[in-house]
Amino acid sequence: MKKLSDFSRIPFGITPTPLYKLENISREVGKNIYIKRDDMIGVALGGNKTRKLEYLLADARDKGADVVLTAGGPQSNHAMLTAACASRIGMKAILVLKKRGELTGGNLILDNIYNAEVRFVDTDSYDDVYAEMEAIMATLRKAGHTPYFIPVGGSVPLGSLGYIACTEEIAAQSKALGVRFDAVVSATGSGGTYAGLTYGTKLNLPGARSVGIGVCDDPFADIALDLMKGIKDLLESDVPVEKEDIHIRYCIGDGYAIPSPEGCAAVRRLARSEGILVDPVYTGKALAGMFQLIEEGYFMGEENILFVHTGGAGALFAVDLLPEA
Ligand SMILES: *Cc1c(COP(=O)(O)O)cnc(C)c1O
């Protein structure tokens, strides 16, 4: 089996990110709730895409790329972090964004600060976005450039290696704290983070289950299985990928990136009890999903739960929370 150090990586993040117990929330819900602060990873406003980009942009650089293209919604954290990381290594970023939702503020301000070229495609389908990206790449190649393509969310097996790395950090931190985690909970939007965390949990956190909270209605069980098989192949690992490893719940509300009452309540709850910001698109809904599962008794007998904070605070400045109930 290969080691992570066998893969090219650019250390954009400041790691290990902090991991500690949420004392107030734990008291309130009657479980030991810990948090892994990937929102504090040190690039822009933080977030999970940083870990994926450490491997993806290293691959881009190894392949001689001088421009990176990626896609997302207008407030994409992934696109913004691609711009941030690319600018740090002197690579141009072109962000092709699906024109729907909030078209000013938030991450679009940051895209601009990081000097990314932003292009909007007026569509509801990523097929149209990818077609536009193909056209841009053909033009770039003709002009002598070497473009590197990253799909939505950076959710390819190579990007997911970043979350194998995260589970190695969690294993070391868990040992140092003397706590064995029973469950690892994360937000799922394109599947790559969950796939990495789930396969990594199997490798590095024996006895824990990885629970993904879907924030849009894509079939994440299948998506995660495919990505995990890809990770296994990359690592040349003998550890099997099994359906039983996958635990997906959904907490979407009215739709992707539409604030939900539960999600907004979770944003306010974590802010007021622990001082930590989650967002209404990903991490607030994931946290709300975790609270629901605790109430349902889903974690019966499982006492130590780790919430992986994947970032997203930029959305707070573009997407209004629902009024307080
Ligand atoms: C992209 C994103 C996620 C989901 O990660 P995926 O790998 O796309 O499933 C979760 N939280 C935040 C803040 C994100 O930006």
Automatic annotation (TrEMBL):
The answer on whether this UniProt entry bears the keyword Aminoacyl-tRNA synthetase reads no
- Give the GO molecular function terms: D-cysteine desulfhydrase activity
- Cofactor(s) annotated in UniProt: pyridoxal 5'-phosphate
Q: Which UniProt keywords apply?
A: Pyridoxal phosphate
For the Tryptophan synthase beta chain-like PALP domain, which residue ranges apply? 12-311
Residues modified as N6-(pyridoxal phosphate)lysine: 49
UniProt signal peptide: none
Q: Name one GO biological process term.
A: alpha-amino acid metabolic process
Look up the domain of life of the source. Bacteria
The similarity comment for this entry is: Belongs to the ACC deaminase/D-cysteine desulfhydrase family.
Q: What is this protein called?
A: D-cysteine desulfhydrase family protein
This protein's species is Candidatus Flavonifractor merdipullorum
